[in-house]
Design brief:
3% of the residues lie in helices and 54% in strands. It has 348 residues and is mainly beta. The protein has one domain: Beta Barrel (Porin). The chain starts with 7 loop residues before the first helix and ends with a strand. The N terminus is likely disordered.
Length: 348
């Protein structure tokens, strides 16, 4: 079987990520560079803490675009919409409900994955008084149930039989000679997570979170049950610390493991508050690096730059991946870009 040269890179990437380094085919989740401890896509227990914030509800829209230079601007794009609402709270515990919608689209729409997750999270105050967070420990547990569908558009590819040797051009109206199963694949998905939060005081906050996705090992193929989503383990560690009245910093670390794939993302963020009587405005600058395993061993895949702006009930973050792996030779030095917009409904 021959395919168009513009699609060879796609098939190589699919083959590498599907079979390395074990003998069965597997699938891998979409990955974002802007990683935070309010992301219920990574961990359903990452719902906001109703005891320590003024939020009644929060909403985030995240968009990622990458590898446009490789495929003549037919980009690999991922969109995530997240909503999180507090539905019950007492002096000692609270419940949040939420939803995550994800759309992941490969080159020219050849491979599309769409999913929606319904989230429920419970938070318990372990120590500390209800009117003071200083010295308080909180533990959250979250569960999500998802519905997903995967579509493959073979019309986005062309094959050797469709190359007109007389006109030296591609004629997609010709028969491919190939037989494909083009039915979409639907599956359900179950995920669980825990999150610990400790307020040493109002300006020193420590967080640790562990999420486990795809507990039921859903198959993403309608012809081969061995093509499945491996369990994804996500560990997040963070400390938010004050330097002075207007300056704070946050070292953070994320570890993600899914089947044979791992990534480590250590990072550091510095935030400057510009508060006034009308609004709480802050600007932040963050640097991180993503380390992954590959067929060539452990390597640094990208350096990540983050610029953030925030107010009392909104935030905006821009991420840029500076590619450092060998794929930079095909991407003309272009990395991935991400934009995140967030909005909160606050208590009156």
């Amino acid at each position: 079987m021959k395919v168009g040269i513009s699609h060879i890179m796609i098939l190589i990437l699919i083959a590498v990520f599907a079979v390395y380094p074990i003998g069965k085919a597997i699938g891998q989740d979409a990955v974002f560079s802007n990683i935070n401890l309010d992301d219920t896509y990574l961990n359903p227990a990452n719902s906001f803490n109703a005891f320590t914030t003024e939020s009644l509800a929060s909403f985030d829209l995240q968009f990622r675009d990458q590898w446009s230079a490789i495929t003549n601007n037919n980009t690999y794009a991922t969109i995530k919409l997240q909503g999180d609402v507090n539905i019950y709270k007492t002096d000692s515990d609270s419940w949040n409900g939420g939803l995550v919608f994800l759309s992941d689209r490969s080159n020219e729409g050849f491979l599309k994955q769409t999913s929606v997750r319904f989230i429920m999270a419970y938070t318990r105050r372990l120590t500390g008084r209800s009117f003071r967070n200083e010295g308080s420990h909180f533990l959250s547990a979250g569960f999500s149930f998802g519905l997903a569908q995967t579509n493959i558009d073979y019309g986005a590819l062309w094959f050797g039989r469709q190359y007109d040797t007389n006109l030296l051009t591609i004629n997609t109206t010709l028969e491919t000679g190939e037989i494909f199963n083009t039915d979409p694949v639907s599956y359900n998905d179950m995920n669980f997570g825990l999150k610990w939060l400790y307020f040493l005081d109002d300006e020193s906050i420590f967080t640790a979170a562990l999420g486990v996705d795809h507990l039921n090992g859903p198959s993403i193929s309608n012809i081969n049950q061995a093509i499945a989503l491996d369990k994804r383990f996500t560990l997040q560690l963070s400390a938010s610390l004050s330097i002075d009245e207007s300056l704070s910093h946050e070292p953070h670390f994320t570890f993600i493991n899914q089947g044979p794939f791992i990534q480590l993302v250590p990072g550091y963020k510095l935030s400057l508050g510009l508060d006034n009587l009308e609004s709480d405005f802050a600007i932040s600058l963050g640097l991180a690096t993503r380390v992954v395993n590959s067929i060539n061993g452990i390597l640094m895949d990208a350096a990540i730059i983050n610029i953030g702006l925030s107010g009392r009930n909104w935030n905006m973050n821009f991420n840029f991946d500076l590619t450092t792996s060998d794929i930079k030779n095909f991407a003309n030095g272009n990395g991935a870009i991400e934009l995140t917009l967030g909005y909160m409904i606050l208590k009156k």
